[in-house]
């Protein structure tokens, strides 16, 4: 792509962006920067979404003010980032991100001295080189994300052909795709995410290297990939995202154990469960219902856990087998994507409760009703049944049982079998001790 310093200017009369659709706080930040003598433009996804007639999730601003200068202008500002310093200006729950225009990555021996640090693969580790708006446009990832809205003239500035690609429905990398993927492999995931979210197609030259470069994701920190997984699957287009990730060979680098199960079963139950879980997530997001990564990961990793537990169940109970399988699967997954304890613990509980749904004798179902994770575990049981796993009868029983009034549930319970000698056994205390402190007698 030829670089030009003269942008295509789309005047106000020829585009659909109105200040009434821009966050008042973003306008406030831009006006204050301009009043202080700096240039400030709305840039990135906010401009792209406004041009597509969508409501932007957030509003980012590009400026020639350095982060420290932005910090001095706003008392409600904090500086973040290591690889590239950013200013976050906070207004209540809304954060306006302000980024200094970046220069192009120097391709010479002085790059580290100028603030750019790359590894042997060409991946950018630090990039604090500031430049002009023209430089900044060519440093962005995709053409459709490199459009600027100038609040002074109300025009859209296009340096890289982003407007034409937006009209054509194309996602195109700026620059050489192989070099850009080496600089930051996460760009491959971003291409998939935008294609699913916006309903656009990935340009052939942008798409071609993805299969061959997917392994570069192994060099990305598991914490960053966890964040990317949430962006991929919790944006309201999880089913399309899942299909595109598998089509381009990237899902196996995020969830290798799950991918092996999908291939072994040639789709079948594991794929049905995943697509149903992702579709349910999309539907909840569409009506603004809460979703949790714990349930998402429970579905994504269930088949590896189930398969491993099946190998262990002969030597231990089903519950113990699931717990051991969960330990092994999670330990392996953490090498690829992080999973904070606030999500892994409820995920484990969802799995651990599945065998307990089969225990319908005596008072056990009543005790299970009081478990704080019952609702999520029950929803997961229904998901398994809908996907074709052999738990339909159990799921139907629990659906009836939960719907009953409290006093009517006793009728549904299966009575415990009486001991052969007719005497009721006293349940031993924890630790296997009786009241006297000696070991409880064994039958």
Overview of the molecule:
46% of the residues lie in helices and 11% in strands. The protein is α+β, with helices and mostly antiparallel strands. The strands form three sheets. It has an eight-stranded mixed β-sheet with strand order 1-10-9-2-3-6-5-4. The protein has a two-stranded antiparallel sheet with strand order 7-8. It has a two-stranded parallel ribbon with strand order 11-12. The relative contact order is 0.06. α7 crosses α11 (238-247). It is built from 21 helices and twelve strands. The longest helix is centred in the C-terminal third of the chain and has 20 residues, at 293-312.
Helix fraction, binned, reads: 40-55%
Number of strands: 12
Task: Extract low-pLDDT stretches.
Answer: 107-116, 430-443
How far apart are the termini? 81 Å
Helix segment tally? 21
Question: What characteristic shape results from the CA principal axes?
Answer: elongated
Radius of gyration: 28 Å
Indicate the proportion of strand residues: 5-15%
The strand line-up of the biggest sheet is 1-10-9-2-3-6-5-4
Largest sheet: 8 strands, mixed
Structural class: alpha+beta
| Overall mean pLDDT | 89
From the structure above, extract its key features.
alpha+beta, eight-stranded mixed sheet, 46% helix, disordered C terminus, two-stranded antiparallel ribbon, 443 residues, 12 strands, 21 helices
């Amino acid at each position: 792509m030829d670089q030009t310093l003269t942008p295509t200017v789309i005047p106000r009369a020829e585009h659909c962006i109105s200040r009434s659709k821009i966050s008042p706080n973003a306008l406030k930040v831009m006006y204050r920067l301009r009043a202080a003598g700096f240039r400030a433009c709305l840039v990135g996804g906010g401009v792209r979404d406004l041009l597509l007639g969508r409501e932007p999730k957030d509003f980012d601003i590009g400026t020639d003010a350095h982060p420290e200068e932005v910090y001095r202008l706003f008392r409600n500002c904090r500086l973040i980032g290591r690889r590239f310093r950013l200013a976050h200006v906070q207004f209540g729950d809304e954060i306006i991100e302000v980024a200094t225009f970046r220069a192009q990555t120097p391709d010479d021996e002085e790059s580290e001295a100028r603030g750019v640090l790359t590894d042997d693969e060409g991946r950018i580790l630090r990039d604090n080189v500031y430049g002009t708006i023209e430089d900044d446009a060519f440093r962005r990832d995709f053409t459709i994300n490199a459009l600027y809205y100038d609040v002074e003239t109300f025009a859209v500035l296009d340096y890289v052909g982003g407007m034409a690609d937006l009209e054509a429905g194309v996602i195109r990398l700026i620059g050489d795709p192989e070099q850009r993927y080496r600089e930051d492999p996460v760009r491959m995931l971003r291409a998939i995410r935008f294609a699913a979210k916006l309903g656009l197609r990935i340009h052939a030259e942008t798409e071609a290297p993805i299969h061959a470069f997917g392994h570069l994701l192994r060099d990305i920190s598991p914490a960053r990939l966890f964040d990317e997984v949430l962006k991929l699957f919790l944006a309201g287009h999880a089913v399309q995202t899942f299909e595109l990730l598998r089509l381009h060979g990237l899902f196996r680098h995020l969830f290798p154990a799950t991918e092996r199960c999908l291939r072994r079963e040639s789709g079948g139950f594991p794929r049905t469960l995943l697509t149903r879980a992702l579709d349910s997530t999309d539907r909840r997001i569409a009506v603004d219902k809460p979703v949790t990564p714990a349930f998402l990961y429970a579905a994504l990793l269930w088949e590896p856990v189930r398969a491993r537990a099946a190998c262990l169940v002969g030597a231990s109970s089903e519950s113990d087998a699931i717990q051991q399988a969960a330990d092994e699967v999670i330990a392996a997954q953490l090498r690829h994507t992080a999973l904070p304890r606030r999500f892994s613990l409820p995920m484990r509980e969802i799995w651990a409760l599945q065998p307990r749904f089969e225990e319908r004798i005596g008072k056990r179902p009543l005790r299970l009703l009081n478990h704080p994770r019952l609702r999520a575990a029950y929803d997961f049981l229904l998901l398994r049944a809908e996907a074709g796993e052999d738990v339909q009868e159990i799921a139907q029983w629990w659906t009836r049982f939960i719907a009953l009034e409290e006093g009517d549930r006793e009728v549904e319970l299966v009575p415990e079998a009486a001991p052969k000698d007719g005497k009721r056994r006293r349940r031993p205390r924890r630790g296997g001790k009786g009241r006297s402190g000696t070991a409880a007698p064994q039958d």
